[in-house]
Amino acid sequence: MKTMFKIIKNFLKSIWAFIDKKIIIPTTRLVLVGTKKFDKSGKKIENWLSKTNTLLFISLIFAVTLFIVIDQKIITFSESSAEVLKNQEVKVIYNEEAYVVEGIPSNVDITLIGRRGELMFAKQSSNHDVSIDLTGLKPGTHKVNVTYKQAMQSIDYKVNPSIATVVIYPKISETKTLTLDLLNQDSLSSKLVIDDIIVNTDKVVVKGAEYKLKEVATVKALIDIRNLVKQEEGVTTLKDIPLKAYNNQGEIIDVEIVPDKISADIKITSPSKELPIKVIPVGTIGFGKAISSIDINETKVTVYGSEDVLSTLNYIPLEIDVNELKENRQYKMEIPKLVGVKSMSVNNATINVSVGNSVDKEIGNVQIEYRNLNEIYTVQGLSKKDVSVVVGLKGVKSVLDQIESSDVIAYLDLKGYGEGEHEVDVKVEGTDVKVQYIPKTKKVRIKIIKIN
């Protein structure tokens, strides 16, 4: 007991020494410094402060003030309050292999109620587990409690929402064929094409509630071209390609897909083809005039695209307007990019057209060809004049002198024609675009016969 009193006595002495050193002495010095500014009255104040009772009263006032300040802090710290933890993730405990659960809130708010000091420690705690336990529940609709694992037992809490209505479905599975969907193809270099894609699997298993699986129309692997590390010819492996299930309206269906990601080997090529530029005059040249020469600064173009597209291309058509043209002219033209062509080595061309005086020439006995006829038919001319025609030519003499009968073609376009007799327009064309070709016979009569 004496030891306890001794400890308390020493503790009080230490407090008094602290107050005397940190409060009384500095305050006294401050007052004394202030009194020096006064004349005779300063000695009276000094004598007053020298009295023991005065110093005791000053110490008592400071001690009481300090006690009130500290006491107010303690009261504030011990008052009850509330704090809200927003958007806390909810964990669900159930057999994920056997069931699908719907109606689980993605997050909840937790209101903590208690003393402010305890709330401060509770908020700093990393243990804020919110869960729903569905263990033992069968398929159907259930109302279940949302529980919170308290960080401190002395704190009350409220969860919002505190009850969830969930629906439990049996989980079933189906096998689906995977389709590939290329995203952001425009980001691929214009000289490159995706030639082939080989995935590590073309079948996936879709799992979920039965009504959800009935909505799944397709499962797609979303191959984003922007994820290619480098764009160059060769084979590139792309990993972690996400899979998504869609309905007939193209909306995403929330089901489990196994695997949920795949990898693919993407073959990139750069097919190209060199094509000649064919200048095609359009319109009727001025009266008595004809084109004597056409010169172009670019005669060939290398085009890039898929092999399927390139195989159908034979030349690049470049039309120039010569309507009412009567003198030499220069054209600066943009070379058109054909459908399916991604890039061209040349995009512009300069064309110089020279004109001269026009003369006429005729080429006779040009045999008529038949185009676009259904293969189940054959054609006969109803008379000798219905199987060949005379073709008139207009152009400058130097050009016409080089035209032979083999350079002129007369034909009938029989697209849509069926069995029977028909009168059909004669069309003509030639190999030299500087010449105007005119059929002297405008129409012929033919008979279309079905092949047995």
Concise structural overview:
The chain is α+β, with helices and mostly antiparallel strands and 452 residues long. The chain has helices at residues 2-35, 41-50, 52-78, 116-124, 210-215, 307-310, 397-400; strands at 80-93, 99-102, 107-115, 130-133, 140-145, 147-148, 156-160, 163-170, 172-183, 193-199, 203-208, 218-224, 234-246, 256-258, 261-269, 272-282, 289-296, 300-305, 316-321, 329-334, 341-344, 348-357, 359-371, 377-381, 388-395, 408-413, 420-425, 427-430, 436-439, 443-450.
Strand content: over 45%
Number of separate structural domains: 5
The poorly predicted ranges are: 71-78
What about the largest sheet? Answer: 7 strands, mixed
CATH hierarchy: architecture of the largest domain: Beta Complex
Using the CA coordinates, give the radius of gyration: 49 Å
Straight-line N-to-C gap: 133 Å
Please name the defining characteristics of this protein.
elongated; 30 strands; RNA Polymerase Alpha Subunit, Chain A, domain 2; 452 residues; alpha+beta; 5-stranded mixed β-sheet
Structure description:
This protein has 7 helices and 30 strands. Helix 1 (2-35) crosses helix 3. The termini are far apart. It has 452 residues and is of the alpha+beta class. It has helices at 2-35, 41-50, 52-78, 116-124, 210-215, 307-310, 397-400, and strands at residues 80-93, 99-102, 107-115, 130-133, 140-145, 147-148, 156-160, 163-170, 172-183, 193-199, 203-208, 218-224, 234-246, 256-258, 261-269, 272-282, 289-296, 300-305, 316-321, 329-334, 341-344, 348-357, 359-371, 377-381, 388-395, 408-413, 420-425, 427-430, 436-439, 443-450.
